[in-house]
Specification:
The protein is α/β, with parallel strands linked by helices. 25% of the residues lie in helices and 18% in strands.
């Protein structure tokens, strides 16, 4: 048990900063209506203050009941890929700060090449990701190539926790 300088016992088992921010990204992902892939993102500044959050979903004002959620269709216009805004895009656009330079983005899924371009342009310098399930696909390879060229560090999220429970 840790104690403060006054001899008081500190609570044990609290979340690390990485666990806290990844948990917020995971919670944000729960807002997604995508039946297959729910992605969340949390953007923090150098002072460990949240400056943006986002999840994958349809553009503002476009009904998610009137657009497709399919991954495959005969016509590409009948798939979600033509319409969905990724979590990273929403996180950057929803930010509550003018400055995202040198920020860190926590993302539940490694960013695609299109999101990598947004991340670079926004001034993000570090990415912590939970899953890289599309590793070695062309968009993933291009993303890593771009991030490496822009000197953006990306690290897989690591924790010994199996779960975090939220009770209402």
């Amino acid at each position: 048990m840790g104690t403060d300088k006054f001899g008081n016992t500190k609570r044990q088992g609290y979340l690390s900063w990485d666990e806290y921010f990844m948990s917020i990204a995971l919670l944000s992902a729960q807002r997604s209506k995508d039946p297959n892939t729910q992605v969340g993102a949390c953007l923090i500044n150098m002072d460990k203050k949240i400056i943006g959050i986002g999840y994958n979903g349809m553009p503002t004002g476009c009904s998610d009941d009137d657009l497709p959620w399919a991954r495959e269709a005969t016509n590409v216009l009948d798939t979600k890929y033509m319409y969905v805004c990724h979590a990273e895009l929403n996180c950057i656009l929803n930010k509550n700060s003018n400055d995202s330079k040198n920020s860190t983005m926590y993302i539940t899924l490694f960013p695609c090449n299109e999101c990598a371009k947004l991340i670079i342009q926004a001034g993000v310098k570090r990415i912590i990701y939970l899953s890289d399930k599309y590793d070695q696909t062309p968009p993933n390879i291009a993303s890593k190539r771009l991030l490496d060229m822009a000197f953006i560090k990306y690290t897989k999220f690591e924790t010994s926790r199996k779960q975090i429970v939220i009770n209402f």
